[in-house]
Amino acid sequence: MLFPLSLILYLLVTSSSACPHYTRSTSPPSDYAAVLPASELLSKAIAALGGTSALSALTGITYHVPNHYRSTSLMESYSPFRADNFIASSGHQTISFSFSSLQQRIDRFHTISDEWIWGSPNLAPMNYTLVVHARSGNDTKACYTSGNNIVYNPRDMVGGCVDPVHDPATNLTIILDPVTYLPHTIRSQTGDLRVYNYTQVSGVLLPRRFLILQGTHVLEDFLAEEISVNPEFPGEYFSASAPTGFTPGMSYSPSELASYSGNMLPATPYTGTFQNLLVTLPLPGLSTLHHLYFNDAPGYRQLVLEFPDAIIVVDAPPKQSLLVLQWVKEKLGREVTHVWVSHHHGDHALGASDYVAAGAKLIIPEIARKFWADTVPDAELLTFSEGKPFTHASASMATRFHWSPNQLHAEDWSYAHIVAAEGEAVFVTDIWNPDGDDDEGVVVGDVRQWLDQAVADGVGRNATVVPAHGKVNGLLRLIEYTGFDYPADVKSMRV
What we know:
This protein is 17% helix and 32% strand. With 495 residues, it is an alpha+beta fold.
């Protein structure tokens, strides 16, 4: 989580990275040289903010955000190209800083949009306090002292202290407005913090508007309607006393960690191991269709389709991808040639680059071509569209990957349909997550829309359903649960 301008006030007197920024509506001031020394830029910025004396008198700041706090998601967006799903649809917060030892406290309350009903069926608001002690190296401390930021946790659970990830290569760049020399953007590996709408408080200019950006996408937006300078903090206000929380997976990059946190998800270490991989046959007797399930990482299940001329991996959850590649090589004695990605959400897509790096081609809907061309530029893309599924077949098994417009879960959501003499199987993501006899994972509207599509695509009512998040089940159970009138005479493309 990025510190707002209060951290920048500190950085301005210690940083050697500052540069002016130009937009179409601004031009360099008359006294601006082609290249200004960092020391001169910093002097101008300090003077613009109020001068050394005024800044030196700051011992603390509190930003009061009583009405306008919102956040959006790219990881769980509907479109691959826009941050179009709210995380926090409304909320309020206060953000306080003590400069004596560079401590931060965030008290935040916000509603969550109905896109997150899968993690919080009653959509209970988030309400937590986070305290950060910024120190050198691994001495940095971040603790949830009240509540937590994980969507599926009980709201009264104290998140505790999380192990910070210190990356010495993370450089902050302060971009200054070329006319006013006020800080304009603070850039890091995780995105940009845009600050503007300055107001003077106790002789110091401070911003009231804050945007957290990833590219052109606004991920967080808030307005500080009041700013308190040098407030009297209670003695234990910045106390970081809390139980031990989760340890982030060290294989996650800073941008991945920021994305998981921003989406109310824990970037916990991936726990799957090769020795705990269970491989079964979802269609008994069909030895070329493999269902992969990791007992020590049960959240994501995948299929591997074995053809004489291809090995197709179904879906691409991150981290698990390396184990699937290892299994194909060691157990089948082959290499993965293709990977199909169900949709662009991170938990189903972030492993795609590992397969591409291993030589696999990427199977995706045509509508997502530009997204994948930008995301994995080295990938060879094989696309499909409405009424024109991607098909691969042998004498004993065939698969089709289907997409149709106006999907409810994600614009590029698609599914896999596998047929053989032994039966039919479909692989679906996020619309049904059955755990034993529990059908609470059904998103009825999404499922009924998909069942309409399945009928049109020729999926028989006796097909086996393989969910990405849940146990293998029969399509009949899903038909019964949703009250869908599924025809008995659907013509299948049976081999």
